[in-house]
Amino acid sequence: MELTIQELAARAGITSRALRHYDRVGLLAPSRVGANGYRYYDVGAVARLQRILLMRRLGMGLPAIAEVLADEVDACDGLRAHIAALEEERDRIERQIRSVRHTLEALEAGAEPQMDVMLAGFNDHYKDEVVSLWGERAYRLANDWWHGKTLDQQRAWKQAAEDLVAAWVAAAKAGISPTSERAQSLAARHVRWLSQIPGTPTADGDRERSIEMVKGLGAMYVEDPRFTGMYDDAAGAAFVRDALQAYARTRM
Prior knowledge:
By secondary structure, the chain is mostly helical. It has 14 helices and 3 strands. The chain has a 3-stranded antiparallel beta sheet with strand order 1-3-2.
């Protein structure tokens, strides 16, 4: 079975112009071109288009998609990876649907929605990062812990974090040494703060992994722009890193 370019475009919900563009950039060539110049696409081409559209929906650009397709040895492995990604996205959307339905039903009944349920499915953007660093268990425990808090408790936690950051910034601006007693006291406070989060090595009492985590976080504060600015500037982030790493080496 084959589809013309117009038929394929209509069924895929895209334009024939897009299909021609995919051909020009080497992503998807027609299976054959008829004597009349018409482009035809067989099952293999449609399967490839399906994968291209999936990756586009996941936010990938055409050059990145081309690299994925070029590097693949087995198309079935690629399809399995896409199924896993789609299942994860489905689970996230289902959590969002449940949370919005909970809010709607509570409001219609004149009741107050539960904060932890209202935000389920909307805060998973750090999941992959947390899982890669500390594992699935750490993510699950920390996520459950956070959503088990009331709104006031969440606000109090965030305020404590902001107060800690402000203390770090003030110490860095004071020009003290990262190994000074004031800096090391802040490092101890930072580690105690981390130990309140279930699933982290500090919360589990795992000394070796805790040392590794504290050193790694210190490095991340300098290397990751999301955190560098939080400590005012690169010098402030470097001060926090050096203090945490000195604390991990000598006091943990």
